[in-house]
């Protein structure tokens, strides 16, 4: 642990922080009211603290999650608000059919997905290092199993959506594939049996001589 | 936690661990005595009697009592010019319970406004790692789930609520799968096979269903997407609720929200309200670090108490045994119980085990605090804790980090190679066991006010088992949402105000209680948010 504080800029404010601190910790202990872009504060699962970072002496701006990124001397940080694009194709997972129309369903819900121009913007934007562009191609090709794996650790920060020039919304496309796969194919035998035992009244909870309703 | 820290320095403790044959100390006091002497709930200054309100005379944590008996953020003269909205059901809180309630309310035909302090999904749900309990195994039954839960909660839970929740569990899993949530399968099985089951502390059989060790993330990203794609749900992100609205009969008929973007107050009138605001970990009770989300500041309890809702077990909190103890800037971050479930041992600075790692959480936490208090903890950089012996676990099961993805991540952040070095841990403030009393539909004693999730009390008694929180939010979230959708007065007859706040203030005056505290606090104190200043509200001329 070093005692010398680093100086960086967060949302235009000069902030002093211990070298061990993450950006979100530095921001939380600076003198600003914090009402957004914060959530799990370090676990890296909520995707709320997405930000743009420019390191001292570098031209390139990169994206990251502030709770998973340590502060550096001279770093410039700007948080990015969450936003929902104007045009969303609404789909209803409970209204889906038997699974033979995955390709048509995908085209209807995400008509832009096949326009991917392979610019790689989504891959660069992803703070989790997922192969987003590859995942988009997998969904378009109907390989939902592979796509489900590709997007397995997606935290829905929406940075890939922000970066996509074709308005594809890759994280939502990936989640669509994951949801379709589970909703249409996951039929655990032990769960089915237990549900039947409960529905038929064969299994219930008893206590103090009373039956639970 | 201001007491002087003594213990064994890290390097010595590490050498002790490596040369240890992991013998178990035999001097653990009986559970009752252990809890009484070492659990934070039982320490001096951990509870006082509430002087006024629906729970006058009942025990409550003093920090929470300060918020329950306090001044409101706004007064009725601040409301002139506020925008008005109306809806069938107002859901307050954007975590798993709120999302389940909102979806169930629209399934039942209601229009819903969902008010979120931060953004939908920003909640403890998304951070839940371990999993969700549901008795689906052939060696398991609803009865065993009921008994484990009731016993784990020290026989303090409401039996009807527990029985209902465990009976709901398999259908809750089916509902989640229907929305597109994935669960892990038993090794080598396909989608028509058996679900993978893990053991939780305090249970008789493996009963935890999970998705890797980020079950909450998988659950919340599916629920959030379902809510965002539901055209009958209006999302109001960054709209914290700051007070409920009551009518002249004391019924709950809506809430006052604060729009952080436009810096103005909004009155939402609703036929009924579902309060799903979560817990209070970010109040850092007793000075503990917390595993909780930034928004967990007890807002729902404060608003509900003011409108007359009765609370339960407000002096009972869960300290999760395995929070990070080192490095200091990560203190309190959670290491999932799944890590102990997988067989990892807890070891003190002398290289000894001191407790069965799979006992209920309050017992394990108290046992760790005992080791630290009696000088057998590990001390490093001014932090104290014990070791979670990951090197032995990984040596015996080299693939385990593929299942415990989050353990790998957090060890990396701690600067530890978990295959070589143990992680240093200390109990962290994790869950609010008590909360608003509800019936089987999630309704409080205030007509029109439904509640679900961590803000409620009575389901987990005085200690919650791993996996029952994610079950609680789905079981009661769905029930509260469905019941709220089919209850309440026609909107035309609804007219709400803050008369109930004045009632409590009069009670304070009569009892000679003076408070300068303004609540709900909305954000932790390091969030440095002042609503009146932010909104540009004038102070009243006195």
UniProtKB/TrEMBL annotation, chain A:
PROSITE patterns: 2FE2S_FER_2, 4FE4S_FER_1, 4FE4S_FER_2. Residues 107-135, 144-173 form the 4Fe-4S ferredoxin-type domain. Residues 4-83 form the 2Fe-2S ferredoxin-type domain. Keywords: Iron, Iron-sulfur, Metal-binding. This is 2Fe-2S iron-sulfur cluster-binding protein. It comes from Neisseria lisongii.
From TrEMBL, chain B:
Keywords: Flavoprotein, Oxidoreductase. Its cofactor is FAD. It comes from the Bacteria. Gene3D superfamilies: FAD/NAD(P)-binding domain, Succinate dehydrogenase/fumarate reductase flavoprotein, catalytic domain. It comes from Neisseria lisongii. This is FAD-binding protein. It holds the Pfam family FAD_binding_2. PANTHER family: SUCCINATE DEHYDROGENASE 2 FLAVOPROTEIN SUBUNIT, SUCCINATE DEHYDROGENASE [UBIQUINONE] FLAVOPROTEIN SUBUNIT, MITOCHONDRIAL. Residues 88-470 form the FAD-dependent oxidoreductase 2 FAD-binding domain. InterPro entries: FAD-dep_OxRdtase_2_FAD-bd, FAD/NAD-bd_sf, SdhA/FrdA/AprA, Succ_DH/fumarate_Rdtase_cat_sf.
């Amino acid at each position: 642990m070093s005692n010398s504080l680093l100086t960086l800029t967060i949302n235009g404010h000069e902030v002093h922080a211990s070298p061990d601190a993450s950006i979100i910790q530095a921001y939380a202990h600076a003198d600003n009211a914090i009402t957004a872009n914060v959530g799990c504060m370090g676990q890296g699962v909520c995707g709320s603290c997405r930000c743009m970072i420019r390191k001292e002496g570098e031209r390139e701006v990169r994206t990251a999650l502030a709770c998973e990124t340590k502060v550096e001397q001279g770093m410039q940080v700007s948080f990015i608000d969450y936003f929902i694009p104007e045009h969303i194709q609404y789909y209803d997972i409970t209204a889906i059919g038997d699974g033979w129309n995955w390709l048509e369903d995908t085209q209807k819900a995400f008509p832009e997905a096949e326009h991917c121009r392979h610019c790689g913007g989504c891959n660069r934007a992803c703070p989790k290092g997922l192969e987003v562009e590859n995942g988009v191609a997998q969904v378009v090709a109907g390989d939902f199993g592979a796509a489900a794996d590709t997007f397995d650790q997606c935290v829905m920060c929406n940075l890939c959506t922000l970066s996509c020039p074709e308005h594809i919304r890759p994280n939502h496309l990936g989640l669509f594939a994951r949801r379709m796969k589970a909703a249409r194919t996951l039929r655990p035998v032990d769960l089915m049996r237990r549900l039947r035992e409960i529905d038929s009244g064969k299994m219930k909870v008893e206590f103090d001589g009373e039956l639970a309703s | 936690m201001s007491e002087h820290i003594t213990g064994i320095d890290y390097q010595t403790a590490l050498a002790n661990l490596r040369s240890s044959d992991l013998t178990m100390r035999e001097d653990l006091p009986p559970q009752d005595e252990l809890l009484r002497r070492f659990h934070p709930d039982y320490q001096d200054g951990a509870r006082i009697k509430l002087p006024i309100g629906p729970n006058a005379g009942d025990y409550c944590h003093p920090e929470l009592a300060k918020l329950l008996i306090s001044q409101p953020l706004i007064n009725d003269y601040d409301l002139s010019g506020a925008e008005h909205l109306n809806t069938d059901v107002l859901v307050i809180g954007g975590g798993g319970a709120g999302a389940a309630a909102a979806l169930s309310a629209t399934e039942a035909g209601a229009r819903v406004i969902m008010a979120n302090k931060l953004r939908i999904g920003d909640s403890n749900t998304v951070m839940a790692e371990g999993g969700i309990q549901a008795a689906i195994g052939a060696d398991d039954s609803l009865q065993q789930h009921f008994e484990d839960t009731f016993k784990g909660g020290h026989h303090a839970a409401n039996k009807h609520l527990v029985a209902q929740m465990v009976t709901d569990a398999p259908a809750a899993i089916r509902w989640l799968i229907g929305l597109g949530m994935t669960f892990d399968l038993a090794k080598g099985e396909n989608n028509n096979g058996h679900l993978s089951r893990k053991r939780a502390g305090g249970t008789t059989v493996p009963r935890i269903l999970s998705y890797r060790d980020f079950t909450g993330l998988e659950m919340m990203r599916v629920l959030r997407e379902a809510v965002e794609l539901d055209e009958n749900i209006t999302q109001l992100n960054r709209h914290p609720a700051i007070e409920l609205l009551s009518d002249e009969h004391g019924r709950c008929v809506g809430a006052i929200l604060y729009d952080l973007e436009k810096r103005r107050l909004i009155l939402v009138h609703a036929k009924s309200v579902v309060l799903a605001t979560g817990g209070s970990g970010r109040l850092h009770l007793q000075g503990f670090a917390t595993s909780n989300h930034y928004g967990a500041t007890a807002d729902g309890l404060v608003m509900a108490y003011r409108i007359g809702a009765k609370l339960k077990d407000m002096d009972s909190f869960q300290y999760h045994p395995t929070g990070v103890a080192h490095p200091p800037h990560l203190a309190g971050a959670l290491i999932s119980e799944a890590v102990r479930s997988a067989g990892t041992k807890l070891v003190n600075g002398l290289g000894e085990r001191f407790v069965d790692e799979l006992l209920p959480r309050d017992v394990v936490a108290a046992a760790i605090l005992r080791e630290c208090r009696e000088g057998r903890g590990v001390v490093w950089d001014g932090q104290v804790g014990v070791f979670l012996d990951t090197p032995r676990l990984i040596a015996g099961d080299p693939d385990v980090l593929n299942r415990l993805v989050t353990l790998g991540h957090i060890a990396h952040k701690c600067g530890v190679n978990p295959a070589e070095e143990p992680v240093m841990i200390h109990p962290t403030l994790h869950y609010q066991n008590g909360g608003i009393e509800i019936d089987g539909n999630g309704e409080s004693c205030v007509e029109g006010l439904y509640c679900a999730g961590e803000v409620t009390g009575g389901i987990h008694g005085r200690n919650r088992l791993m996996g029952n929180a994610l079950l609680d939010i789905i079981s009661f979230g769905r029930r509260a949402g469905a019941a709220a959708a089919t209850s309440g007065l026609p909107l035309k007859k609804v007219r709400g105000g803050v008369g109930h706040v004045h009632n409590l203030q009069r009670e304070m005056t009569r009892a000679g209680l003076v408070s300068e505290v303004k609540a709900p606090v909305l954000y932790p104190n390091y969030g440095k948010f002042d609503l009146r200043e932010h909104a540009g509200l004038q102070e009243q001329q006195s």
